[in-house]
């Protein structure tokens, strides 16, 4: 089975609907046909400030949500990035073949550093894409499912892999990004031109996977729409309604057209009620399962440790080969 790598940052207590629809649903689907590595990327999360005790808890919670959403730790390798030391080690090696200017062209860094200001922007945030390249290349991954905002990082990963292979000899598989369909992109309920995000400034537009169902329903009922009153998809002119349709379609597997037909001649109130029901039905069991897993953190930690050992096995082979190829003296 071809290798696949993807990950998410443990940057909040709960994942949000965009993470679920844009990533977890695809991962779940892909895990049978691929040898998949899914990581909770805590080393990436600390490129912006994190409170230590909270980070630990968020890491567990993120892993629990992967499992609750259907990622099976016996099928896929589901682990915590910092448990596998090779990530940080390979990132260092790759940073020595990354151009300063090349890294400086990454638009996500430009956006994020503008948000934090120069004094609060860490060097880690700057080298974030190099760590991501290490994540992917360690496992000889062929495919990397990501949102389109990560496309540039996967391009950099390919450039670094090709450069290394050319300079030192074949060590890496050249990966390909699998960009999620536009219909899998979810926007903020209150600000439907901005993507839904764990770190949104306001919580009102974010549907959390672990939220109380009544709260999620309320957020949907309050979602921004328009004054037209007709349920149809038009991303440009009706971003709010289009976003709700996208969520509805993604969670039910229905075509957008069929949902439009179902709600033809009915108001937004009815449509939102319908969507609230869909969301509660889908997220409810995930929330329950995640909470069960979190009730027994020792068992969850054991599962993660076992999977980290599986990841180590693959990662260590790549890292040893890389060390050899660049001429580091072997420790006997
Ligand atoms: N709104 C979204 N619609 C579709 N997919 C999304 N993803 C995130 N938001 C949406 C996908 O979820 C995965 C998580 O990636 P991440 O945790 O590394 O960070 P992110 O993409 O920056 O997601 P967030 O939720 O906005 O986190 P923060 O606030 O920490 O930056 C990726 O596959 C992403 O495409």
From TrEMBL:
Entry EC number(s): 6.1.1.2
CDD domains to which the protein is assigned, alphabetical: TrpRS_core (cd00806)
UniProt keyword Ligase present: yes
Binding annotation for L-tryptophan: 135
SUPFAM superfamilies: Nucleotidylyl transferase
Reaction(s) this enzyme catalyzes, per UniProt: tRNA(Trp) + L-tryptophan + ATP = L-tryptophyl-tRNA(Trp) + AMP + diphosphate + H(+)
Enzyme class: ligase
Classification via Pfam families: tRNA-synt_1b (PF00579)
GO molecular function, one term: ligase activity
Keywords noted in UniProt: Aminoacyl-tRNA synthetase, ATP-binding, Cytoplasm, Ligase, Nucleotide-binding, Protein biosynthesis
Keyword field contains Metal-binding: no
Binding site for ATP: 9-11, 18-19, 147-149, 186, 195-199
Subcellular location: Cytoplasm
UniProt feature coiled coil, ranges: none
Motif 'KMSKS' region positions after renumbering to this chain: 195-199
Cross-referenced HAMAP family: Trp_tRNA_synth_B
Protein family: Belongs to the class-I aminoacyl-tRNA synthetase family.
General function of this protein: Catalyzes the attachment of tryptophan to tRNA(Trp).
Summary of subunit composition and partner proteins: Homodimer.
The protein, known as: Tryptophan--tRNA ligase
Source species: Microbacterium suwonense
């Amino acid at each position: 089975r071809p290798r696949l790598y993807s990950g998410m940052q443990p940057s909040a207590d709960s994942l949000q609907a965009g993470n679920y629809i844009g990533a977890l649903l695809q991962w779940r689907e892909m895990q049978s046909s691929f040898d998949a590595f899914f990581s909770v990327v805590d080393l990436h999360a600390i490129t912006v400030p994190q409170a230590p005790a909270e980070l630990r808890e968020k890491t567990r919670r993120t892993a629990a949500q992967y499992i609750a959403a259907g990622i099976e730790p016996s099928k896929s390798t589901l682990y915590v990035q910092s448990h596998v030391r090779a990530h940080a080690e390979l990132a260092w090696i790759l940073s020595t073949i990354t151009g300063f200017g090349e890294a400086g062209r990454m638009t996500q860094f430009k956006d994020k550093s503008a948000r934090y200001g120069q004094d609060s922007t860490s060097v880690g945030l700057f080298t974030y894409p190099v760590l991501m390249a290490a994540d992917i290349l360690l496992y000889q991954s062929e495919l990397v499912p990501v949102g389109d905002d990560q496309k540039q990082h996967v391009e950099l990963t390919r450039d670094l892999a090709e450069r290394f292979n050319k300079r030192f000899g074949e060590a890496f598989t050249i990966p390909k990004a699998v960009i999620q369909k536009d219909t899998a992109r979810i926007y903020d309920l209150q600000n439907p031109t901005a993507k839904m995000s764990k770190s949104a400034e306001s919580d009102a537009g974010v549907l959390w996977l672990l939220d109380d169902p009544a709260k999620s329903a309320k957020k949907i009922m309050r979602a921004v729409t328009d004054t037209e009153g007709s349920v149809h998809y038009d991303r440009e002119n009706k971003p709010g309604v289009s976003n709700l349709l996208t969520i509805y379609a993604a969670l039910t597997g229905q075509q957008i057209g069929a949902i439009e037909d179902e709600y033809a001649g009915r108001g937004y109130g009815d449509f939102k009620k319908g969507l609230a029901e869909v969301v509660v039905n889908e997220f409810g069991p995930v929330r329950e399962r995640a909470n069960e897993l979190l009730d027994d953190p020792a068992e969850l930690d054991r599962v993660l440790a076992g999977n980290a050992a599986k990841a180590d096995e693959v990662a260590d082979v790549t890292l040893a080969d890389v060390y050899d190829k660049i001429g580091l003296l072997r420790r006997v």
